[in-house]
Specification:
Layout (H helix, E strand, L loop, with lengths): L10 H24 L2 H8 L3 H7 L3 H20 L8 H16 L2 H14 L3 H28 L8 H13 L2 H6 L8 H18 L6
Amino acid sequence: MIAAAPRSRPAAAQRREAILLVAQDVFLEHGFEGASMSQVAARLGGSKGTLYSYFDSKEALFEALVAESCAHNADSMFAVADDADIAARLHGFARGYIRLVNSDWAIRMFQAVAAEARRRPEIGRMFFDAGPGNALARLAAWIAAAAAAGEIAVADPVASAEDFASLCRGSLHLKRMLALAPEPDADAIDGIAGRAVAQFLQLHAPDRQ
């Protein structure tokens, strides 16, 4: 999700962030196909010429929105102290990841990207690389470092990162995609995260190898 730009940032940066905030609403409401630059400009209260001076096409605007949303959300999952042990890091990641992937915003954004990716596969690739792919790579680096320090035992950090993400998603994410469950509250998120971390650490305990 795109956050509002701080007032201390340059005017051009604030304007760009304002455009992305409005575009986010338009794309989520209408999907990529139904959204238009005219709709974005109308909500901004400016001219299409101003909008095109920042983004030269609807495709470019959508790509920027996806890239910056993914980067912002990935950073929020890794806001754990550098000296924290692997259990604390996994808990922090799990809580942020579970909250994000089950949010209304993420579900709607995924649906918008998936629909457009059928026509433009590069959008799907960009979304994966900037969001899930980036998060999994950073998680794998944590796991590799913990294994090198003897905290856990893993043969393949990348595969282990994917396994942990799957534990975090569980069946809830599928239910959310099918509109069969509401967004989880903090207690539910903590419960899922705790179980995922416990299972992962038990499976990868050094004395099991």
